[in-house]
Backbone:
């Protein structure tokens, strides 16, 4: 259901990873990207992994909203296990 809007979602999320954003905002954005990565099988990703992964890694580890760590790290593990 989200597939047609992934590009727009990523464009809207990108500024939230900026250095001037609050740590909690970055944490929430990282969790959101993690959930998007988990929404589809690695063989048919919804998200351009090559473009998104460096941004996600730069936002880790979460520092304020630790609840967002689970989807972000789960997505990374999912990608690693998928090869």
Residues:
């Amino acid at each position: 259901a989200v597939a047609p809007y992934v590009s727009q979602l990523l464009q809207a999320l990108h500024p939230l990873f900026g250095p001037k954003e609050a740590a909690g905002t970055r944490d929430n954005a990282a969790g959101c990207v993690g959930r998007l990565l988990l929404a589809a099988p690695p063989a048919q990703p919804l998200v351009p992994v090559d473009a998104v992964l460096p941004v996600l890694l730069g936002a880790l580890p979460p520092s304020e909203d630790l609840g967002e760590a689970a989807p972000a790290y789960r997505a990374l593990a999912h990608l690693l296990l998928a090869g």
